[in-house]
Amino acid sequence: MTKKLDLYKCNVCGNLVEVVLEGEGELVCCGQPMEHVKPHSPNEEMLGEKHVPVISVTENETEIRVGSIPHPMEDKHYIQFIEAYSPDKNYVKRKYLYPNDEPLLKFKCHCAKVVARELCNIHGLWESPQ
Ligand SMILES: [Fe+2]
Fold first, then answer.
1. What is the span of the domain harbouring residue 14?
2. Ligand 1 centroid – CA 2 distance (Å)
3. Per-residue pLDDT reduced to its tens digit, 62-74
4. Which of 19, 82, 91, 102 is within CB 3.0–4.6 Å of 86 for a Cys-Cys bond?
């Protein structure tokens, strides 16, 4: 059983999929079950400072930076996307990033609260504290 917005990765070909609507079946790619990708603990080792998304909300805009110390955006090590969603998961915003981009997502939002997560190509998935 999958859950809305869960991420699954194929460890053979690298496909990464997000669940849009939940279902009972197991997700399979390249002939084997896909791995459920879960976020790291925010306090993990010293990587958290550069990976945990930092959310700031102004009057009409929400800004998400990766992390409290900016994450590198180099060819071999960079943030692949930043995603924000409402706690009920009914509103989702995602921005794809590439080397040399600023690890930043800005958008207009009327949500009282958002959850943010990002994927580092080397260090995996990180989520804002709930
Ligand atoms: Fe990283």
1. 7-37
2. 27
3. 999 998 999 999 9
4. 91
Indicate whether 13 belongs to any domain.
yes
Write the burial class of residue 88 (CB in 10 Å: 0-12 exposed, 13-18 middle, 19+ buried): exposed
What tokens appear for 79 in the block? 């943030």
How many domains are there within the chain? 2
Q: Residues 122, 82: one domain?
A: yes
Task: Report the separation in Å between the CA atom of 100 and the middle of ligand 1, taken as the mean of its atom positions.
Answer: 14
Distance 73 CA to ligand 1 centre (A): 9
Helix (H) or strand (E) holding 7: strand 7-9
Q: Which residues contact 45 (CB under 8 A, 6 or more apart)?
A: none
The Cα 28–Cα 38 span in angstroms is 17
Residue 60 and residue 28 share a domain: no
Distances (CA, A) of 41 to 31, 36, 38, 57, 103: 30, 15, 9, 23, 20
